[in-house]
Structure formats: structure tokens, C-alpha cells
Specification:
With 216 residues, the chain is mainly α. It has one domain. Helix content is 87%, strand content 0%. α4 packs antiparallel against α5. The longest helix is centred in the last third of the chain and has 47 residues.
Length: 216
């Protein structure tokens, strides 16, 4: 069963990528509709009614669109990382059986003829390209968090008059947007960078295995 799932991921990589993005978007957005947004709105209403500071609970921290986009990209990157992991595991199993030609056809998703001297270079380049989207997401998530920070600070500055008159609830809420978006984005990027480091280790292992098989 496990091998069948891995093979499905490898053979339909583009379809898998598109469907995983769609699933990530729908799943995260449903969580926001059902849980995060209603709970956050309730706490914001209580804060505005009592003229008190907004408590930083999980729904409040995650309520803004920047955080939702970061979570969608993070979930999508995990699906993509799983696809790369599945492909590398299958490829290493084929190589361990000594079938270099079958490995080449499976790894590149097509029937190709590559000399053993060029095989290592081709695999290395392919692995670098396959992880480029995930690396881009690891850069994009903090950038989106920073956009939320800029938006929150801008809104807070626009509410300075209300704060001077004693109503600080709106201003603190806007500042919360600024800090929460950065906090969530940096936390997700740290986790994603750890995933990328594990992927790099597996990619290096596969490259070494290919080099050993090519030299035989």
C-alpha cells in the first residue's frame, strides 16, 4: 500500500502538485471559516465592548489573511516535500537492486539514455530544480508576514487620534496584526527550513548512491 502511494505521487507529479495546492487552500480556509474567524471575532467584540486589550489567544494570532496565506503555503510545501521524499525513496530502492536503467526512467519520469559519467550531474541538477519551489516558499512566507507587519503598523498609525483620546483597543488590535503576522511567518519558516535540511540530507544520500552505482 505504501509503495503504491509513493508510485502514484512520482508518476503524476504535476497533477499531484496542483491537487495538493487546491487541497491545502480548501482545508486551511475551512478551518478559518469554522474555527479561527468566529472565535477571533468573538474575542475582538468583547475587547471593543470592554475597552480592554485583546488577549493573544491562538485564534487571534492566526485570524488575519497574511497568516492564512502563510499556512496554506506551508501546508503545500509539506505536500511537495513528501513527493520528493517518495521519489527519492523509490529511486534508492531501485538503485540498491542494481538497475541503473530503470532508475533513470523512474527518476526522470521518462525513458532517457544518460551515460553513467553524466548521470550524477543530471541527478544533482534535477534534485536542485525539484526543491526550488519549496525553497521559494521558505523565502515567501517571511515576506508575507512582513507585509502583514507593514499593514498593521499603518493601521495603528491611522488610529493614533483615538488612542490619544483614551481608546487604545483599536490601536492595540492593529499592532497585534503587525506582530502576530511576523511571529507566525517566522515560526513556519523555521519549521520549513528544518524540513528542507532533511530533504537536502536525503538528496545527498541519493546522489552518493547514484555515484556509487555509476562507478560500478
Amino acid at each position: 500500500m505504501k509503495k503504491n502511494i509513493f508510485k502514484l505521487v512520482v508518476d503524476h507529479s504535476f497533477l499531484y502538485s496542483a491537487l495538493s495546492l487546491f487541497f491545502s487552500t480548501v482545508f486551511i480556509h475551512l478551518i478559518y471559516i469554522v474555527l479561527i474567524t468566529p472565535l477571533a471575532d468573538e474575542q475582538i467584540s468583547i475587547s471593543l465592548a470592554t475597552q480592554s486589550g485583546l488577549e493573544r489567544t491562538l485564534p487571534v494570532i492566526l485570524k488575519d489573511p497574511e497568516q492564512e496565506i502563510c499556512l496554506i503555503l506551508f501546508a503545500w510545501s509539506l505536500f511537495l516535500a513528501f513527493a520528493i521524499y517518495a521519489k527519492n525513496i523509490i529511486s534508492m530502492e531501485i538503485l540498491n537492486m542494481g538497475n541503473v536503467e530503470r532508475f533513470t526512467n523512474t527518476f526522470f519520469n521518462q525513458s532517457v539514455s544518460i551515460q553513467n559519467t553524466k548521470l550524477v550531474e543530471g541527478v544533482s541538477n534535477y534534485l536542485e530544480i525539484s526543491t526550488s519551489v519549496i525553497r521559494y516558499i521558505s523565502w515567501a512566507i517571511p515576506s508575507i508576514g512582513f507585509l502583514g507587519t507593514v499593514r498593521g503598523i499603518g493601521e495603528a498609525l491611522g488610529q493614533a487620534d483615538e488612542a490619544i483620546n483614551g481608546n487604545i483597543a483599536s490601536m492595540t488590535q492593529s499592532l497585534g496584526v503587525a506582530f502576530n503576522s511576523t511571529f507566525v511567518a517566522l515560526l513556519l519558516s523555521i519549521i520549513l527550513m528544518f524540513v528542507i535540511s532533511r530533504m537536502d540530507k536525503l538528496n545527498d544520500s541519493l546522489t552518493l548512491t547514484v555515484r556509487a552505482a555509476a562507478e560500478d
